[in-house]
Amino acid sequence: KTLASLGFALHHAEYHAKTHGLRRIIYVIPYTSIIEQTADVFRGVFDGIVPSPVIEHHSNLEAENETAKSRIASENWDAPIVVTTNVQFFESLYAARPSRCRKLHNIANSVVILDEAQLLPPEHLAPILDALRQLIAHYGVTVVLSTATQPELHKTRSDTFGRVQLQGLGEIRELAPDPARLYRELERVQVTLPAAPEQRRSWEEIAGELSKLERVLCIVNRRDDAATLWGLLPKGSLHLSARMCGAHRAEVIGEIRRRLATGEPVRVVSTQLVEAGVDLDFPVVYRAMAGLDSIAQAAGRCNREGKLPDKGRVVVFNLPKPSPSGLLLKAEQAAVNVLAGSSGDPLTSANFARYFDQFYGVLNSHDKEGVLDLLNRDAARGEIQFRTAAPRFRLIPDEGQGQILVAWG
């Protein structure tokens, strides 16, 4: 998927370079945990070109590896291919500080690839989609939504009174020639769902089943749950979560890949960070009940390379306790509702369309901080509240954040 989207972007930019002046590819990723490996893949494609056409811009950049020239290029996005994060890309579009805005002119006339587009924060979708519409309409930008679970961002959604809740992107063109046929040909897993929504399972029961399997990945929704389940598994089982520093996660992922390659037993408990951009291939995957897109992404870590003689096995289970209220619970409930009215394969495009319709429909707001209102309310008088809106548009809230230094390695 990564290389296919890059290939399209290169051909598209080349084709439109003279007529529309397309000059740059910006690859936007949801998690910093996978940005370096993606940039390395791109550098491998252009191996031998000096200087490299690929730069990274994200919060995990190591200062000791930077030069003054590379730092300026990174901050200005002055390179043919830029690999960055959702946070850097979208918060820069709504920023009010010169340091964050100095790259904006280089977004014009670019191909912007949004990797795992279903992970765009739903409570900020209104300002995100508004920015994308402006870039497409007025700044020569082509946007590519790259995901196996398309979140129906083209649709405009209204409430029961006809008031627009979320203005969509409008017409979107599918790049794959026949997605339904490709899905059928690449169907590599059998998904087992809970018999009933109220059928809850204890961690001890899940741990007992995982312990009987030599190679298995179990994905849960919360870091505390991952730690609890990992503690119940046999010695030598592995654990992944965002509580680990990047170097620690990379080491664990490397060990997982080594064991998978050599056929050694490997049991892994992870949060959903493993669902985006982490190429692992297990014969069996367990997934705690979640949004339908998360279940599909988990299934993408099962029989990924199609090497099993039969289909891989994906087991979805209900957690011991209900999820706390919020986005996670709403996503679970939307998935349960869609799956209750579906028969056969749960991971069809029709089910995804129904799921996102339900999930987006139950959200209290798609602009919870009122960013668009601040920018549009007095715009006719030329009074646009950039300085007030900028700190409110935070994909990751600043409250409660701090730096903690922990010795590792």
List keywords for this structure.
single chain; 409 residues; alpha/beta; Rossmann fold; 2 domains; six-stranded parallel sheet; 15 helices; 13 strands; 14% strand
Give a verbal description of the structure:
- It contains 15 helices and 13 strands.
- Helix 8 (203-211) crosses helix 9 and helix 12 (327-340) crosses helix 13.
- The protein is globular and about 65 Å long.
- 38% of the residues lie in helices and 14% in strands.
- It has helices spanning 2-20, 35-45, 68-76, 86-93, 98-101, 125-138, 179-185, 203-211, 223-232, 246-262, 292-299, 327-340, 349-361, 371-376, 386-392; strands spanning 24-29, 54-57, 81-85, 110-115, 142-146, 157-158, 164-166, 189-192, 215-219, 238-240, 266-270, 284-288, 312-317.
- The strands form three sheets. It has a six-stranded parallel sheet. A five-stranded parallel sheet has the order 2-3-1-4-5, with helices on both faces. A two-stranded antiparallel ribbon has the order 6-7.
- By secondary structure, it is α/β, with parallel strands linked by helices.
- The mean pLDDT is 89.
- It has two domains: 2-175, Rossmann fold (3-Layer(aba) Sandwich); 184-348, Rossmann fold, CATH 3.40.50.300.
Short description:
With 409 residues, the chain is an alpha/beta fold. It is built from 15 helices and 13 strands.
Task: Record the SSE blueprint.
Blueprint lengths: L1 H19 L3 E6 L5 H11 L8 E4 L10 H9 L4 E5 H8 L4 H4 L8 E6 L9 H14 L3 E5 L10 E2 L5 E3 L12 H7 L3 E4 L10 H9 L3 E5 L3 H10 L5 E3 L5 H17 L3 E5 L13 E5 L3 H8 L12 E6 L9 H14 L8 H13 L9 H6 L9 H7 L17
Parallel strand pairs: 1-3, 1-4, 2-3, 4-5, 8-13, 9-11, 9-12, 10-11, 12-13
Antiparallel strand pairs: 6-7
